[in-house]
């Protein structure tokens, strides 16, 4: 790197970098608090007609503006996403049932290796930035359908979904 050689300039830019992180962290904290409040509300989705897809998951847009879109996902038993990362922030809460989440490390732009798998139950909330370790796959293993609420940092009128790139599981 052809670094700026005045230490004052490096300090200036370092402070700017820290400020960008604090904005992101402030958003993630707010998203986490909002989802925690929503997920604790009985009957949150009452009166909303939710689409379902046998053997798969169905996305239901329940709120959208120029900054965020909020989706209720209904997961049939056996439904599974691809292994993917995101072009935007990704926050979600489990409302009903259980969701298995596996996290991966990319080894190139097409392949990933498994790092960990955890199961999330009702009330679980997670918030991630696109630049964080946010390469995952979500699955519904039953025994009943699952419902989760997702807050993504994209305008639903500009993007079809939150996925930046999809990966194949690498043979190790
Ligand atoms: Fe995702």
From TrEMBL:
Keywords: Dioxygenase, Iron, Metal-binding, Oxidoreductase, Thioether bond. The keyword Lipid biosynthesis does not apply. The keyword Iron applies. Fe cation binds at residues 84, 86, 136. It holds the Pfam family CDO_I. GO terms for biological process: L-cysteine catabolic process. There is a cross-link at residues 90-152 (3'-(S-cysteinyl)-tyrosine (Cys-Tyr)). It comes from the Bacteria. CDD domains: cupin_CDO. One of its GO terms (molecular function) is ferrous iron binding. InterPro entries: CDO_1, RmlC-like_jellyroll, RmlC_Cupin_sf. PANTHER family: CYSTEINE DIOXYGENASE, CYSTEINE DIOXYGENASE TYPE 1. Belongs to the cysteine dioxygenase family. This is Cysteine dioxygenase family protein. It comes from Xanthobacter dioxanivorans.
